[in-house]
Amino acid sequence: MLMTHIAPAYTADEDARETAVIASGLLYPEIGLRLHDIVARARASLHTGMAALTIITGDDQVLIAADGIGTGTTKRSTSFCGHSILNPHHVMIVPDAQLDRRFAGNPNVTDDPHIRFYAGAPLVLASGHALGTLCVFDPEPRTGISLREMEELRQLAAKVMAFAKRS
């Protein structure tokens, strides 16, 4: 199998989305501490090895809060969440990243943390701008998630958005 990696596109209204990201207040360092319990609940509810709350900014992905993996900044070009925000009203599910042409050659798949399964619920403002995702991921592939798990992930993402300033 040819190992490819397709970087996520930028949104059509990227400048407005970036303004909304900054105005949301979710990038403040203290927010991550306040949202850790939601991220931990997502990981436990979906029985995955890792979960994160990510915000996509410019060329970066910022892990605001995480469980099972560290926080910090990674490249948007290798992020799963950068793809997820392009379809802000749907939970993106990748059952096996090694079999998905967008991710098979992605360093997050081929190297640490060896992501195989991913599910991400976009964090969407009332304006329609997706800021990032609440996502869960695992080094083991899956066939998908149940409707109950998908709804749980969506509800937890909505709880995260309760912390965002309205813009």
From TrEMBL:
Lineage per the UniProt record: Bacteria, Pseudomonadati, Pseudomonadota, Alphaproteobacteria, Sphingomonadales
Domain GAF residues, every copy: 35-160
Short name of one Pfam family: GAF
Top-rank taxon, per record: Bacteria
Protein name: GAF domain-containing protein
Gene3D superfamilies named among the record's database cross-references: 3.30.450.40
InterPro entries in the record: GAF, GAF-like_dom_sf
